[in-house]
Design a protein that fits this description.
Its EC number is 2.5.1.145. Pathway: Protein modification; lipoprotein biosynthesis (diacylglyceryl transfer). The chain has one domain. Helices cover 59% and strands 3% of the residues. The protein contains 10 helices and 4 strands, in the order H-E-E-E-H-H-H-H-H-E-H-H-H-H. A hairpin with a 4-residue loop joins strand 2 (25-27) and strand 3 (32-34). The longest helix has 26 residues, at 64-89.
Length: 294
């Protein structure tokens, strides 16, 4: 695939997604296993594996049993929150009533429509709050550890969007890597899924892992949460300039000057900055304050 992208870019012709030989899943005959589902699974499992490594390092705010609870409840939060968020923010257009809420049965059809990052984030935060409250854990410090693991899922999810040929970008002129997607018309477009995979996934993975393993960031309560929140919101805000707005929200984007995704990231950017500033202006935690719960 990389050789095809390089050759097309060199020739100056737009790249055609269909020529990449990608499939939207694995056909098992009786059932098609979607890459998007596998991406969610891979991100969640890899995040859980890394969390179990993190809590073995000094300063962990939780024990293994808490990590197991978080794995279960955060998985529910991602799926339910992502789906309900998509139904709330991205369906219905200007009618005032989201179409998926008008037909609740459609919510269960995960293959029809999509998942919302903001909804999944809300679901994950609620899951963390529940586990923290039930086990008397420090909610913000739990969030610090979860924040390091989330970019894994973002990377796989955005790559799956590209493999599915969905959520393509705006029409691009003079861009050597512009691509023609099957459902995006005949004009070449930005492969914005890859931009998101790079910024929300790969770059943030490197930043968060370096902060956790190579610095004392985990001893500053809320710093990792703040960096993650600010970083992923800023990345999403930037990429939205290249991403085609959902068809039902194009008029909204024209009328307000920003896409729905951008409006939803503004509060996250401010929240991330708040956590970063607060963490850096407070005294780092001491050993007695970070004793792991039994």
């Amino acid at each position: 695939m990389l050789s095809l992208l390089s050759a097309a870019a060199t020739a100056g012709a737009p790249i055609h997604w269909v020529d990449l030989g990608l499939t939207r899943g694995i056909d098992l005959g009786f059932f098609t296993l979607r890459w998007y589902s596998l991406a969610y699974l891979a991100g969640i499992v890899l995040g859980y594996w890394h969390l179990t490594r993190m809590i073995k390092a000094p300063g962990a705010p939780m024990a293994q049993r808490h990590a197991d609870d978080l794995f279960f409840y955060c998985t529910l939060g991602i799926i339910l929150g992502g789906r309900l968020g998509y139904a709330t923010f991205y369906t219905g257009g200007d009618t005032g009533i989201p179409s998926l809420w008008a037909h609740p049965g459609e919510l269960l059809k995960l293959w029809n429509g999509g998942m919302s990052f903001h909804g999944g984030l809300i679901g994950t935060v609620l899951a963390m709050a529940w586990v923290s409250w039930r086990n008397k854990l420090d909610f913000v410090r739990v969030g610090d550890y979860i924040a390091v693991c989330v970019p894994f899922g973002m990377l796989f999810g955005r790559l799956a969007n590209f493999v599915n040929g969905e959520l393509w970008g705006r029409v691009a002129t003079g861009v050597p890597w512009a691509m023609v997607f099957p459902d995006g018309g005949t004009l070449p477009r930005h492969p914005s899924q890859l931009y998101e995979a790079a910024l929300e996934g790969a770059v943030l993975i490197v930043v968060m892992l370096l902060l956790f393993w190579k610095t004392r960031a985990r001893w500053r309560k809320g710093l990792l949460v703040g960096v993650f929140t600010f970083g992923i919101a800023l990345a999403r805000f930037v990429v939205e300039f290249f991403r085609e707005p959902d068809a039902q929200l194009q008029e909204f984007a024209v009328r307000t000057g920003l896409s729905m995704g951008q409006w939803l990231t503004v509060p996250l950017i401010l929240l991330g900055l708040f956590f970063v500033v607060r963490a850096l202006t407070r005294r780092p935690l001491g050993a007695a304050e970070v004793a792991a719960p039994a």
